[in-house]
Each structure stands twice: as C-alpha cells, then as structure tokens.
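Hallway conversation turned thread

IA: we were arguing at lunch whether anyone had actually written out Protein kinase domain-containing protein end to end. Turns out nobody had. So, for the record, here is the sequence (231 residues) and right after it the structure tokens. Reply here if something looks off.
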Amino acid sequence: MDFNNSDGKAGKAELSTDNVQLVSLLSAGTIFDYWIASNKTSTAHEYFIAKTVSDKAQMKDGYNFIFMASKIRQLNDHPNIVIFLGCAIDKEPYYIYQELLEYGTLREILMRIGNSQHHLQNPSNGKEELTNAACLVGFARDVASGLEFLHINKLCHPGLMTRKILYDSNNKCKLFDFWPNEISSGRLKKILSRKDPPIGWFPPETIFMNQYDEVSDIWSYGVILWEIFSF
C-alpha cells in the first residue's frame, strides 16, 4: 500500500481523506463504522478497511478515536495484529486505515474445523496443509503472542473473543479492535450497556465492578482457549 512504511516500523503516515475512496459499508455500529476502501493514488486496486466514528457516537468517542489513532500509529507491525496502514485525524470525519482480511473470524474457522475430518484448508489456495491439532495449538499461540504485544505497548482488548479475531491467508490469527489502557474503561461501558453483553468472556471484577485491565484480557484468553479446544 502506497501510504504504509515498507519496513513495518512505527510512525505510520497520515493519508488525506481526499485520496481515499469509500467503496462499500462493511458494518455500522453505535461507535464505529467500518468501510471497504481504496487508495485513489494507487494503481494496484488494493482494498483496505477504513474505520471511522459513527454518526451515532458521542463527542467523547471522537476524542478517544484521535487518541487511539495517535497511539496505534506508533506501533511496529506484528504478525498477530491487524496491520495499521495509516490514519486521517486532522479534520472530521476521522479515519483509521487497516489491512483487509477476507478469510473470516477465528470462530468461523473453528466451526469449519469442527465440520471436517482431519485437515483445515488454507483459505488462499484450498490445499490441505495442517492437521486440526496443529491448527488449534497454533491459534492459541497466535492469540497469546498478539496479547503479549498489546500489553507491552499498554493496550488491552475489552470484548476479546473468537469472533473478534481475524484469520489470514497464512493460517495466522490477528487481533483487532484493541484500545489504549487509558480509555479502555469507556469502551467497557459501551460493551456492558448493550442489550446482550458478552459477559461470558469477562471476569467477575468486570461484570460486578466495571474494572478492566491487562489481567482481564488473560481471563478472556482462558475462555478463548476453552472455545478453541472444544471444537
């Protein structure tokens, strides 16, 4: 992608919204909308994700979005984290640009494994490459590696579950939708205020005292391990 550092190091570029074409709305929420987008200045016809603040969001959500973008843009690339390509936070609407992964979520992959006999096919070429046992251990390792990277960089992942983990063409799991520790409590309140919050993935202190930190991620990871090895 033209606006990404080729060496994968921190300090990703800011891309003007004038150079981004929003192609189709992928999902709309109360805080964020996700679009499939393309770079007008590129001739490669590559697509990526454009994450923006929803019209339904509050003013504070916009401030948090800017803080989150400024934090994430300093991260180095990691094999188990969705690649951050750039951002546009100089004026509204604000955007964060991320790689587009089209191979489904970890939950979808686990369901596919549960319906197969021996092997999981590589989604990019359809070839059988790994045994189910090797896949499951690899998934667990990928999520743990991604969480370790987030925690080192003072980020956490409220709402972490298998359907919030993406899968790429190299049979790798990638985390997305993580938050800086400083504003994770705001994200937590939004999640718990839903009609059917995913309390099965939250530790007791989160459910009863609205507390969340990196240790809470480890509880969620334990639930994910149960999900992975139950298939």
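OS: looked through it. The chain has two domains: 17-99, 106-230.
IA: good, adding that to the notes. The longest helix spans residues 132-152.
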